[in-house]
Amino acid sequence: MSEVQIRRAEEIDLPAIVAMLADDPLGRSREDASEPLAKAYRDAFAAVNADPNLFLAVMTDGGRVIGTLQISYLAGLSLQGAWRGQIEAVRVAADRRGERLGQRLLEWAVEQCRARGCKIVQLTTNKSRHDAHRFYDRLGFKASHIGYKLEL
């Protein structure tokens, strides 16, 4: 393995990121990785990149994007005004799974949250992602809440 690095995503990384988001049964039903990428992806990237409380990360190996996640830093009044780190869209390229790259990516993200002064790190995962549930359990995350979503 070459030198694996984690850095802020650049627009050139978008095709690889979207391809990873689309690379499972859930993703295939809601993402479109065909080229050229839809303008909505580029607009979303620009919005994320412009917001200091959002960080879209990529993990690379030899210049190839092999992992991604997004951190949202959320201010709130609960927990005595604590900041939260919300981790979303965690993915590792299918051919690189099983190398503990996801663990390395999540541990890096937790450290980023700690460095920003967050008192809690949270994430959600779809109920159907049983492998992800075991992964997050193994890393010490607790399934302490029930999440609800309303599609608009």
From TrEMBL:
<dbReference type="InterPro" id="IPR000182">
    <property type="entry name" value="GNAT_dom"/>
</dbReference>
<feature type="domain" description="N-acetyltransferase">
    <location>
        <begin position="4"/>
        <end position="152"/>
    </location>
</feature>
<dbReference type="InterPro" id="IPR016181">
    <property type="entry name" value="Acyl_CoA_acyltransferase"/>
</dbReference>
<keyword id="KW-0808">Transferase</keyword>
<keyword id="KW-0012">Acyltransferase</keyword>
<dbReference type="InterPro" id="IPR050832">
    <property type="entry name" value="Bact_Acetyltransf"/>
</dbReference>
<dbReference type="GO" id="GO:0016746">
    <property type="term" value="F:acyltransferase activity"/>
</dbReference>
<protein>
    <submittedName>
        <fullName>GNAT family N-acetyltransferase</fullName>
        <ecNumber>2.3.1.-</ecNumber>
    </submittedName>
</protein>
<dbReference type="Pfam" id="PF00583">
    <property type="entry name" value="Acetyltransf_1"/>
</dbReference>
